[in-house]
Amino acid sequence: MLLEHIIMCRLVMGNKTVAVQEIVQACQLCHQHPNLMATHRPQIHTLLGLYAMSMNCMEAAEAQFNTALRLSTLTELWTFINLNLAIVYLRTNRETDLMGLLERIDPERIVANSHSLKASAYYVRGLQSFFQTRYNEAKRYLRETLKMANAEDLNRLTSCSLVLLGHIFLSLGNSRESINMVTPAMQLASKIPDLHVQLWASALLKDLYHLCGDPVREHEGYQLHTNFSNLLLKDYFDSSQLSAHNLIQWTEGSFPITAFPLSSAVGPGAEIYSSPTITDVLDKA
After folding, report:
1. 3-state helix, strand, coil in the chain (%, to 5)
2. Of 218, 136, 201, 192, nearest to 162 (Cα)?
3. What are the CA-CA distances from residue 64 to residues 39, 42, 88 (Å)?
4. DSSP result, 55-83
5. Which residues contact residue 102 at a Cβ distance below 8 angstroms, ignoring those fewer than 6 apart?
6. d(CA 283, CA 281)
7. In b/e form, how buried is each residue of 96-123, taking b as 16+ CB within 10 angstroms?
8. Dihedral angle of Cα 48, 54, 57, 61, to the nearest 10 degrees
9. Contact indicator for 165, 142 with CB cutoff of 8 Å
10. Which residue of 63, 137, 228, 245 lies most exposed, with the fewest beta carbons within 10 A?
11. Residue 119: what are its φ and ψ, rounded to 5°?
């Protein structure tokens, strides 16, 4: 469904307000066509999990991902969900739950044809090592991610890996190498555009230029970080006020159509295409 791809792009661009309303549109469309709901419900719950993650609603994100895992029969989607569930566990410091998940996302065991999934698995392992301050191990994983991401033009994975490497080098006290990682990451993220990576990169850049004694560039980094932060905060607040935001609580039963009556948006602008999975978007981003 075309809407799946559009929603993924909205979330990457930091436009959660529109994304969650389009998730409702996708639900409304599938509700009108029971066969669509049967085949696309795992993808819908995955999208809701990604949206909940972007809103820092980690409990809801976990519930959505687990619902999608229960319903999914697609190997690549199943792997994609587990990778995002691992990030939820990392962000909520749930080491025990993460350890129980690692075998499912071992990059050496992933047999899916999608190179983006294997590259993503290396990234998640790198992120785990970073949180555990095992920096050399993190660098090894991230370099594997970069090799695969560059070969396949996976721009978002490339930018995320470069920023994380920059963060690692900053933690190790190597400011010059950190700048060499973060600067191209910022440039790439601005082309996607990926507001979250730009926020992360600008936060690092202002600190790096402060350490380097460059007040002009430090101020530029500060201004960029402030602008990105304000944009995301406004979008966060606007999205949290929408009735569509409550859909992150839906995990059981039929789609609550009475709470979200059919809108005019479900019409000519929501054509159904052959059924791509969410993982396809990683290859486009």
Report:
1. 75, 0, 25
2. 201
3. 16, 9, 11
4. TT-HHHHHHHHHHHHHH---HHHHHHHHH
5. 86
6. 5
7. eebeebeebbebeebebebbbbbbbbbb
8. 40
9. yes
10. 137
11. -60, -40
- Decide if 173 contacts 212 (C-beta within 8 A): no
Residues in the chain: 285
Q: Are 75 and 104 in contact (CB under 8 A)?
A: no
What φ, ψ does residue 242 adopt, rounded to 5°?
-80, 145
pLDDT at 260 exceeding the cut of 90: no
Taking Cα atoms as reference points, which of 275, 258, 256 lies closest to residue 36?
275
What single letter denotes the amino acid at residue 248? I
- Using the predicted structure, report yes or no on whether residue 65 has a pLDDT greater than 60: yes
Closest C-alpha to 240, from 250, 252, 248, 229: 248
pLDDT > 90: what percent of the chain?
81
**Nearest in space to 12 (alpha carbons), one of 143, 190, 256:** 190
Which are the contacts of 256, defined by CB distance < 8 A and separation ≥ 6? 247, 250
State the pLDDT at residue 273: 28
The DSSP-derived string for 83-127 is: HHHHHHHHHTT-HHHHHHHGGGG-TTT---S-HHHHHHHHHHHHH
Q: How far apart are CA 256 and CA 252, in angstroms?
A: 10
- Confidence (pTM): 0.89
Burial class (CB within 10 angstroms; exposed 0-12, middle 13-18, buried 19+) of 20: buried
Please, which residues have CB within 8 angstroms of residue 58's CB and are 6 or more apart in sequence? 52, 88, 91, 92
Distance CA 135, CA 148 (A): 20
